[in-house]
Amino acid sequence: MKFKNPPVNSLSLEFLTEFVISLEKLENDKTFRGVILTSDCPGVFSAGLNLMEMYGRNPAHYAEYWKAVQELWLRLYLSNLIVVAAINGVSPAGGCLMALTCDYRIMADNPKYTIGLNESLVGIVAPFWLKDSFVDTIGHRAAERALQLGMLFPPAEALKLGLVDEVVPEDQIHSKARSVMAQWLAIPDHSRQLTKSMMRKATADNLIKQREADIQNFVSFISRDSIQKSLNMYLEKLQRKKG
User: Which one is catalytic: 5, 9, 50, 118?
Assistant: First the structure.
């Protein structure tokens, strides 16, 4: 599956909805056992959540948007399919969220490409369930520091941290993803799926048990004047960069 929401594959409500529908179609077609996630936009895997969905809108829209973000994470994180990320561009915040749900992460060896959860730099906070999967992946201390500082890691550092599993030359990323997929496909589906579920169930259940409360927390947080001002400043900064 190639993300194609130019210019930066931001996770708009429309993109989130279409992605989940496409994933569901693959899961329901038993001829598919795995999926490789990658980008069709040069230099960008995904720039993450679309800030325009969180700025200057009404509470009902914020709630709908956050429910779609939760749904994307849950569907990918608990998917019975083998999910391999071929990270062929920058992958901050929501891009990193998608990569973290995958069974295996391969990143293109380009020092301009970075990955991480940089929400704090924008004035917002990664949700507890994303924090949990970050901790599961890189450990508590590394996650605590990276989350507070909003750190983004180039490929070599991401590999050292365990945030990605492999770094390969950019022109080899898709062939590598296919060979990794072949290795995972050699395992019987039932045993691999049960093992995946066993490893991930507790983290997913944390969100499933309190989805509604998590949506309400997000809506009240994002509706605050101070947070809206923060987002406004960040969006103005992006506009100046473009200008």
Answer: 118
Can you list the alpha helix ranges (DSSP code H) found in 57-210? 59-77, 94-100, 119-122, 128-138, 140-149, 155-161, 173-185, 189-208
Structure tokens at 41: 């936009």
Pick the catalytic residue from 11, 49, 97, 147: 49
Q: Span 2-242: which CATH code?
A: 3.90.226.10
The two tokens of residue 4 are 């194609």
Is there a catalytic annotation at residue 78? no
Q: What parts of the chain have a pLDDT lower than 50?
A: none
String of DSSP letters for 167-231: EE-GGGHHHHHHHHHHHHHTS-HHHHHHHHHHHHHHHHHHHHTTHHHHHHHHHHHHTSHHHHHHH
Residue 18 annotated among the catalytic residues of the structure: no
Instruction: Indicate the pTM of the whole model.
Output: 0.95
Which residue out of 5, 23, 89, 119 is catalytically annotated? 119
**Among 34, 48, 89, 94, which one carries the catalytic annotation?**
94
Structure tokens at 149: 């500082």
According to the model, what pLDDT value does residue 182 have? 98
Residues 6+ apart with CB under 8 A from 129: 70, 73, 203, 204, 206, 207, 214
Structure tokens at 103: 């069974």
Identify whether 243 is a catalytic site residue: no
DSSP code for 43: E
Q: What is the pLDDT of residue 97?
A: 98
Is 53 labeled as catalytic in the residue annotation? no
Contact 97, 131 (CB under 8 A): no
Position 239 scores a pLDDT of: 84
